[in-house]
Amino acid sequence: MMIIYFWAFVVGGLICVIGQLLMDVFKMTPAHALSILVVAGAILAGFGVYDNLIDFAGAGATVPIMSFGNALVDGAMTEAEQYGIIGVITGMFEVTSAGISAAIVFGFLGAVLFKPKG
Predict the structure, then answer these.
(1) Position 117 pLDDT exceeds 70
(2) 3, 48, 74, 81, 87 from 41: Cα distances, Å
(3) Which residue range(s) make up the domain with 40?
(4) Is 118 part of any domain?
(5) Are 7 and 59 within 8 A, CB to CB?
(6) Does the keyword section mention Transmembrane helix (predicted)?
(7) Whole-angstrom distance between the N-terminal and C-terminal Cα of the chain?
(8) H, E, C per residue of the chain
(9) Residue 91 lies in a domain
(10) pLDDT of 118 over the 70 cut
(11) Structural domain contains residue 65
(12) What average pLDDT score do residues 81-96 get?
């Protein structure tokens, strides 16, 4: 059982290290690093590799930002099988809408409840 936690920690940590290296070594902005990680997750999902990583590392692969790219591709592929080309667009929004909605709501609540430093 403990080995699951170990691999989740290692894989999640490596994903974070890659993001940090993109910012420190390649002098990318956080937005660029996040975009690269999302696209990398989408590409790995497109080749069917990211699901194997999730099976291996569990939360170490589902929590970092690469999982968002995976969710976009998985949703698009699932809906495309049912509804064709229009399913590609609706599938991405359907799968990721809960996370995006939560980010908007909690961001708004944070802005209302706390005074920003200017």
Answers:
(1) yes
(2) 24, 10, 11, 21, 20
(3) 2-113
(4) no
(5) no
(6) yes
(7) 47
(8) CHHHHHHHHHHHHHHHHHHHHHHHCCCCCHHHHHHHHHHHHHHHHHCCCHHHHHHHHCHHHHCCCHHHHHHHHHHHHHHHHHHCHHHHHHHHHHHHHHHHHHHHHHHHHHHHHCCCCC
(9) yes
(10) no
(11) yes
(12) 89
Of 7, 109, 111, 16, which Cα lies nearest the Cα of 58? 7
- The amino acid that residue 79 corresponds to is E
Domain count, the chain: 1
Do the domain assignments include residue 83? Answer: yes
Tokens 């799968």, residue?
Answer: 95
Tell me the residue type at 104.
Answer: I
pLDDT of residue 2: 92
Write out pLDDT tens, residues 2-46: 999 999 999 999 999 999 999 999 999 999 999 999 999 999 999
